[in-house]
Amino acid sequence: MATSISATGFKGGLCSSFHGSWGTSMAGEDHTMLAKSVPSHVRVKKPVRLQPMMKNVNEGKGLFAPIVVVTRNIIGKKRFNQFRGKAIALHSQVITEFCKSIGADPKQRQGLIRLAKKNGERLGFLA
């Protein structure tokens, strides 16, 4: 036996002693007023998505950080990043040649490159 609930009570096989309303009824004027107050459609903006950034935890710290910041401000961010990229690539090549000369395997070479990056962060070269 199906039972449904309405604003005025139960319909179906069950009886209810409640025959009143809860303050205001939802019939007639109240219902149309409520329907008019609710917008028929809602616009949702695209969520703002921040670009992922690799941040240096030691930014602004380190012995060489002030020199790096001043240089970046003088020559501009784009040119500075190009220069820094070339310097990092050159340093990685030096580490690779060193590893070849001592017979270190690629895993040790990668470890040395990571160590160089950590040292550069601590010293402020990546500020």
TrEMBL record:
Stored InterPro entries: PGR5
Cellular-component GO terms for this entry: chloroplast
Superkingdom field: Eukaryota
GO terms of biological process kind: photosynthetic electron transport in photosystem I; response to high light intensity
GO molecular function: electron transfer activity
Protein name: Proton gradient regulation 5
Organism (species): Nyssa sinensis
